[in-house]
């Protein structure tokens, strides 16, 4: 099983990540992310918008089981993070999270 916390820390160090809803949506519209992670308690309208754009761009979405505070803490941020887009996974195995979900 993939340790999501460890993989997120690894991708933050070795890959390229966009943190935040507005920036993530902008990247999704350009088709750049390999994976989008969204917090389980993200506002419903935001979640639906992100999922709709990801479906159109054929980008997998992983719903993080914790809160946006938990996701922010995992990213080493002192604030909430509702959406995180993985542009380049770097040396992490974060893409395996999606394969385990399917």
Portion of residues in beta strands equals 15-25%
Unreliable residue stretches = none
Would you report the number of β strands?
4
Question: CATH superfamily assignment?
Answer: Ribosomal protein L30/S12
Structural class: alpha+beta
CATH topology: 60s Ribosomal Protein L30, Chain: A
Spatial ordering of strands, largest sheet: 1-4-2-3
Q: Could you state the order of secondary-structure elements as H and E?
A: HEHEHEHEH
In CATH, the architecture is 2-Layer Sandwich
Helical content band: 40-55%
The profile of the biggest β sheet is: 4 strands, mixed
Mean pLDDT: 91
Instruction: Give the radius of gyration.
Output: 12 Å
Shape: globular
Distance between the termini: 14 Å
Helix count, DSSP H or I runs of 4 or more residues = 5
Compute the number of structural domains.
1
What would CATH call the class?
Alpha Beta
